Please model this.
Amino acid sequence: MMNRKLANYGVAVLAVCLVSVLSAADGKRPAKAVTPESRPAEWWSKRHAEKLKELESKKTVDLLMIGDSITHGWEGQGKKVWSEYYAKRNAFNIGYSGDRTEHVIWRLQHGEVEGISPKLAVIMIGTNNTGHRQDPPEETAAGIKKILGELKKRLPKTKVLLLAVFPRGATTDDKLRKINTGINKIVKKFAKRKNVSFLDINPTFLDDDGNLSKDVMPDLLHPHEKGYRMWAEAMEPTIKKLIGG
Model:
């Protein structure tokens, strides 16, 4: 009896090893962009805890903003514009500086939309996948697709406005700009999903030749107050269409 158990155990171990070897041979590990991940920075954990606490104190969230430092900036350079356009809409900002798609996925899985049912969620994410690792557009787009899946599961009644990843770099020839453009070509197709709309306001920030001015984004990545006002004004007609005035 014992020999039979040992034999069965040996077969099981062999099977596991074989699967591991085959997986390694395939080289098909999930991309980092789709693998949920928190960040070790103390400020990041603190902000997450603060956002969970803020969420508990809110009676209603009608408008949800999701993203990285560009969305985070509504609390900084865009604060005045936010108060004009979004404070009255019971808005909640969960943008985190430096976040990539995998960090947003983790945050959605760890309580940041718990207990709410916004009318609209606005997403603008992906430029840090480009800037930090130069992820291929397909991988970043897969991360954005997973974010949409998390929102559909957790906020089934919420409409989603997926924004094109903003332009970066001075010209259309900028290497990282090209990667962001590649992401946008893929994710615009996600608007075929129920309750998902896609909006590209990038021309708002560019001149006729596609150049990005430091007058709009001083570091050619992050808007200052003028840039946030341009963003809000360009997005307003779509927000009104999706959720009203």
User: Anything to note?
Assistant: The beta strands are 63-67, 91-95, 120-124, 159-163, 196-199. The first strand starts at residue 63 and ends at 67.
